[in-house]
Amino acid sequence: MARTSKTPRYREFNAAPNAYGPRAQDPTKWITKLDPEIPLNLELGCGKAEVSLALAKKYPDENYIGIDLKADRLWRASKNAIEDKLDNVAFIQANILALNDFIRPGTVKQIWLTHPDPFPKDRQAKHRMLNRNFLDIYKTVLQDDGVMRFKTDNKPLFEWALELLKEQPDVEVSRSMTDLHADSQDEDLIIETTFSKRYIAKSVPINFIEFRFLR
């Protein structure tokens, strides 16, 4: 069976009113769509942005932005948001390393990292989304009381991240769990995504870390 071309998805995403990126609206212009006076939350490496969409629906008085490199993933998120008439969510096609270019310092209430690529080889550690270079970017955009929430099905990545975070003098780990869906009743934390459903079905637990930056 021939693969479906992604080109129509790219075109649809780039033309969407809630889409920003190199071929869509200028990523710095998201603020013209979302109310800058209400709390801002980010989902990084968001894929189909299932966490952002669920939370945007639950908390209409807060803003959500899903950011990913892949426009075809964001296409589905953008389409779902439009179909659900969610005016408090937007999507940006961008590299997370460029976050400071379109998110103002000290404006983010919460950052979600959900099932990022584990980059399992030692030489790939610089690409992991919790290495120090990324942490410095997150620290810049977060409010003083802002919080980071990290979920992964990859146990080695979880263990690496937890050890790394505990070594950082400006990081305070407030919660960690090795089986999030068994250990937490917090509905926000246990929002099911495509990834989590897949691994839960295989009896693979979801690991979780919540942390803040000390100022």
Descriptive report:
By secondary structure, the chain is α/β, with parallel strands linked by helices. It has one domain: Rossmann fold, CATH 3.40.50.150. It is about 30% helix and about 25% strand. The chain contains seven helices and eight strands. It has an eight-stranded mixed beta sheet with strand order 1-4-3-2-5-6-8-7, with helices on both faces. β2, α2 and β3 form a beta-alpha-beta unit. The longest helix has 13 residues. The model has no long low-confidence stretch (mean pLDDT about 95).
Strand order in the sheet with the most strands: 1-4-3-2-5-6-8-7
- Tally the helices: what do you get? 7
Span from first to last CA?
Answer: 55 Å
Rg over CA atoms, rounded to whole Å, is: 17 Å
The CATH class: Alpha Beta
Characterize the biggest β-sheet. 8 strands, mixed
CATH architecture: 3-Layer(aba) Sandwich
CATH topology: Rossmann fold
**What is the assigned CATH homologous superfamily?**
Vaccinia Virus protein VP39
Q: What's the SSE pattern? A: HEEHEHEEHEHEHHE
> How does the overall form come out from the CA principal axes?
globular
Uncertain runs are none
Proportion of residues in extended strands: 15-25%
Number of domains: 1
- Share of helical residues: 25-40%
Average pLDDT, all residues: 95
Key terms for this structure?
215 residues; alpha/beta; Rossmann fold; 8-stranded mixed sheet; 7 helices; 31% helix; 23% strand
